[in-house]
Amino acid sequence: MSTTTDKPTILIVGAGLGGLMLGALLEKSNVPYLIFERASAVKPLGSAMSIGPTLLPIFEQLGIYDEFLTIGKYLTHLVGYKEALVPLKPLDLRPVEEFTGYGQYIVARPKLYDLILKQVPPHKIHFGHRVLNITEKDNKVTIHLSNSDTVEGDIIVGADGAYSAVRQRMYEQLKTERKLPKSDQEDLPFCCTCLVGQTKVLDPEEFPIVAEPKCHFSNLYGDDKPFTWHTFNTAQGTLCWMVLHHLSEKTSKAAMEQRFRNSENSEWGDHPAQAMCDETRNFPIQLLDGKKRTLGDLYDQTPKEFISKVMLEEKVFATWHHRRYVLMGDACHKLNPSGGHGAVTAMHDAIALANLFYAMPAKTGEDITRIFEEYQKERLPAVTESFNNSRQLAKTAGRGIVGAIILYLTTVIPAWLWRIAMAKTIKFRPQAGFLPAIVVKGNVEPVVSASEQRARAVFKKQQQVAASV
């Protein structure tokens, strides 16, 4: 692949939300790129996501904000219940609108995925293309694909998840050079597994909650079992659900697989999701209609091929880049989903990288190393904060004494202290510096993004040059 542009050619491996967001932004900035995804098609798996002020300014810049509002369900409170459906004090999310000018919304993950996918021209995303090898030569990086094609670029971005093939190749080089920290050579740990799904469109006569104008987000805590479960209604007339199984100790994928290879009753056989459905189908849920409902009522309304069981790994890697490789999203920081920050941090990574790629003065190895260092320096503090917040929320959901104490404190927290806590969650609201800026709303100023400022300076200079011609 050749190009006459002075901008680097970006090869993105992985078409998850982070990879797609990077592609959508590079499309707007006229930086050349291609996306490669090993799956032939992305299945509409997963439950729903909470999206609000930390991403909505960039949605405005991309011109998708209004369409997002049609697929999102306005969320004002998080409501907790004990297993007997005794309600706990609701947590009020409305202060975020005062702080930022944006509300909080629940959106089905597949709907959000489709919305961002539409921002990437079809000829720039290649499904069913697995990366077999990566080589570097003459200041270029080349990916070797499963269909025997090779593609050359200047930078390769690993947006391919927690078990990233790009990270594996990069770390192999670093190990050979004796530059890989010991912590980065350890397995990804996890302490809970997750069952997720979304029902088909439901009849509001039978399930009145789906017709509610606002989202009812319920968190349920098992009394004597290591489970928490959650339900939320969507704008599409469906119910999303998630069940977390909190393990008694941390483990890893490799340890689990070895354990089950030595067992006749492997949980990770052909039907792991079905086994967890059977185990949890009698857990009660609250759908506000006065009827006795259980998770089984939702499982029966969910197509089996859209139910999945996953491990919830937790780790922030120390090494995010090397030479012409750079990682983003789960490939370099895997967060517990309790905080709802995983996909958000991946898309924030995409914004920072897009700003820096746009502002690069040249595409030499020195320039690339410099912008990668700036990228990690900017993103690591925010990622670390999200990682710690997610772990704290995971402890709340856990069934131990620490979880019980934290849960109690959240129900008695005074309004003024809750507002302070909420204000901290919305301070990162980055924008693309190469697109017209969205006026900052609300009364809490966002953290200044160095990559955005750098891109904005280049953008203004180019506008001045264009105006003088």
TrEMBL record:
InterPro entries (alphabetical): FAD-bd, FAD/NAD-bd_sf, FAD_mOase_fung
MF term (GO), any: FAD binding
Keyword Cytoplasm attached: no
Describe the location of the FAD-binding domain by residue ranges. Answer: 9-180, 305-386
Q: Which UniProt keywords apply?
A: FAD, Flavoprotein, Membrane, Oxidoreductase, Transmembrane, Transmembrane helix
Q: Name one Pfam family in it.
A: FAD_binding_3
Keyword Transmembrane, does the record have it?
Answer: yes
Q: Which residues cross the membrane?
A: 400-421
Q: Which family does it belong to?
A: Belongs to the paxM FAD-dependent monooxygenase family.
Report what the protein is called. FAD-binding domain-containing protein
Organism, as annotated:
Mortierella hygrophila
